[in-house]
Amino acid sequence: MTTPVIQLQGVTRVYASGENRVHALRGIELEVNAGEMVAIMGASGSGKSTLMHILGCLDKPTGGRYLLHGQDVTGLTPDQLAYIRNRQIGFVFQSFNLIGNLTAWENVALPLIYAGVPRREMQARAIAALQQVGLEGREHHRPNQLSGGQQQRVAIARALVNDPAIILADEPTGALDTRTSVEVMAIFQELHREKGLTVVIVTHEPDIAAYCRRLVRVRDGQIVADEDIQQPRQAEQELAAQPAGEEKA
Ligand SMILES: Nc1ncnc2c1ncn2[C@@H]1O[C@H](COP(=O)(O)OP(=O)(O)OP(=O)(O)O)[C@@H](O)[C@H]1O
Ligand SMILES: [Mg+2]
Description:
Helices cover about 35% and strands about 25% of the residues. By secondary structure, the chain is α/β, with parallel strands linked by helices. It has one domain: 3-Layer(aba) Sandwich (Rossmann fold). A 6-stranded mixed beta sheet has the order 6-7-8-3-9-10, with helices on both faces. Strands 2-1-4-5 form a 4-stranded antiparallel beta sheet, covered by helices on one side. Helix 6 (about 180-195) links the parallel strand 7 (about 165-170) and strand 8 (about 200). Helix 3 (about 105-115) runs parallel beside helix 5 (about 150-160) and helix 5 (about 150-160) runs parallel beside helix 6 (about 180-195). The chain is globular and about 50 Å long. The termini are far apart. It binds adenosine-5'-triphosphate and magnesium ion.
């Protein structure tokens, strides 16, 4: 038996805002094995982003334990968490979070600056990551010279550049049209299938969750359902069956 990549044991997260205490997570039990592709769904305010921040070591639980590759990260300092985050986890957000006055490759290279990689190697690795997401030829474009889908692919390349084991994506297709969303899901499916990456995607669109192999539902800070998806949609096939510019109105 192999150790799960992610183990949450009784994880709670309480936000204190003024007089109020918001119980955003109320005892989450979750195990994710290496190479899984998991969708997380739930209503607005149900705790999905809070859960992702904890999974990504951007935030710490108020209670319970988080084991990442079997290592308890619950008690680590912010610096130690940043170290782990930088090496093991790639993040993708709904709003791309690119820096406007940097080129595509410079945006992708940002995580390498913190890792102290020499500039020449940084550029080579950033360009390789851009190739992985189908953006060769766009290395020197700035975000405002790219489409939304291309910007999200730059953000995925940035998430990949440190060769993480886990990709966490919070509403990665939330700002994209349907076809572009399928293109982005094709990239996640390829990373999952070809590179064995563990992928966790928050979405409120059932059509997007259907590209994953497992669906976890969250309500009021608790997991209320967790099931395998029997026949995931195949983004690559769908794109091939309906070439760009031919989608139905
Ligand atoms: N920094 C914070 N301080 C106080 N309360 C917070 C904070 N962040 C989130 N919350 C609260 O915690 C609960 C869960 O929020 P969270 O952002 O995890 O929800 P979500 O499922 O991601 O929602 P959405 O689908 O709208 O993105 C909500 O009630 C929210 O108001
Ligand atoms: Mg959210």
